[in-house]
């Protein structure tokens, strides 16, 4: 892409999701938690055969738990990009820059009405997969 001499930043330098930042929106950010997950079998736990360790490099998925009190599942608007999660409801907004790149088309979201919580599970894009999987 050709850089215009009047441009301050190149498109690569602008963080993904920055177009969602709206400082004039008064809705509060809901409480959330990001949990990294990995599939571990007995061969990993006791014998260490697959070479997995507890680091985030060996995690396969990211779970984002978002508490949404007084919210119905039909009110939730969710948009997930590779490195950004955008959630909007009538009472809350969340623009979350994800700690690791994800494969958003492979993700899933589930709303638990009894807990008033949304769980978003996203498979992670891991740059070292070709080494770990061998």
Summarize the structure.
The chain is mostly beta strands and 134 residues long. Helices cover 7% and strands 29% of the residues. A hairpin with a 4-residue loop joins β4 and β5 (93-97).
What's the arrangement of secondary structure elements?
Layout: E1 32-37, H1 42-47, E2 61-67, E3 77-80, E4 84-88, E5 93-97, E6 108-112, E7 117-123, H2 129-132
Q: Which regions contain 5 or more consecutive residues with pLDDT less than 50?
A: none
Q: What oligomeric assembly is this protein in?
A: single chain
User: For the terminal residues, how far apart are their CA atoms?
Assistant: 37 Å
Major sheet characteristics: 4 strands, antiparallel
Class by alpha and beta content = mainly beta
How many strands appear in the DSSP assignment?
A: 7
Tally of DSSP helical segments:
2
In percent terms, what proportion of residues is strand? 25-35%
Strand order of the largest sheet: 1-2-7-6
Task: Give the helices and strands as they follow along the chain.
Answer: EHEEEEEEH
pLDDT averaged residue by residue: 81
Shape: flat
Q: What integer value in Å does the Rg equal?
A: 18 Å
Q: How much helical structure, as a percent, in the residues?
A: under 10%
């Amino acid at each position: 892409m050709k850089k215009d001499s009047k441009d301050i930043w190149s498109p690569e330098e602008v963080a993904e999701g920055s177009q969602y930042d709206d400082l004039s929106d008064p809705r509060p950010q809901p409480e959330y938690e990001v949990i990294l997950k990995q599939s571990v079998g007995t061969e990993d736990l006791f014998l260490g055969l697959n070479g997995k360790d507890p680091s985030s490099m060996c995690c396969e998925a990211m779970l984002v738990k978002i508490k949404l009190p007084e919210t119905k599942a039909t009110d939730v608007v969710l948009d997930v990009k590779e490195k950004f999660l955008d959630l909007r409801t009538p009472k809350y907004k969340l623009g979350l820059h994800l700690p690791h790149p994800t494969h958003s088309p492979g993700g899933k979201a589930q709303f638990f009405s009894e807990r008033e919580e949304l769980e978003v599970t996203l498979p992670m894009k891991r740059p070292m997969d070709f080494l770990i999987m061998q």
